[in-house]
Amino acid sequence: MAFSTQNDDNDVISEINITPLVDVMLVLLVAFIVTAPLMTNAVKVNLPKTATTQAPENRRPVSVTVDAASKVYLDRKEIGAEALGTELKALRTDNPELTLHLQADQDVPYKSVAKVMAVIERAGGTRLAVITASQ
């Protein structure tokens, strides 16, 4: 839209028209405002409020490994299936909140893994994570 003035010398106006830029930015702003709530995948819950507590100690979990030859390891140290129970009971006396990570080779028969899990349960292990590889 051009305005004519009294001194119309047919000069070129060298100003930048920012109106289209502002229009595009407003459209993008509205698009982001509308789509932002849809991008969250969290379940909405109202958490109860409690007194502030101290964070638990960050203790390293104990690793129990069964290799392809059905040998049992406790933190990279080979141990017999019979001795595993006594070792775990000793560790539980030091730390009642003991966390165990069970790793088993994919070629190990389930029977061997089930025996190790039974030993862990008899030793009083209540926190067990079975470690697998992601695809």
Automatic annotation (TrEMBL):
Keywords: Cell inner membrane, Cell membrane, Membrane, Protein transport, Transmembrane, Transmembrane helix, Transport. Its main location: membrane. GO terms for cellular component: plasma membrane. GO terms for molecular function: transmembrane transporter activity. The keyword Transmembrane helix applies. The chain crosses the membrane at residues 20-39. It is found in: Cell inner membrane; Cell membrane. It is a single-pass type II membrane protein. GO terms for biological process: protein transport. PANTHER family: BIOPOLYMER TRANSPORT PROTEIN EXBD (PTHR30558:SF12), EXBD MEMBRANE COMPONENT OF PMF-DRIVEN MACROMOLECULE IMPORT SYSTEM (PTHR30558). Involved in the TonB-dependent energy-dependent transport of various receptor-bound substrates. Belongs to the ExbD/TolR family. The accessory proteins ExbB and ExbD seem to form a complex with TonB. This is Biopolymer transporter ExbD. It comes from Noviherbaspirillum cavernae.
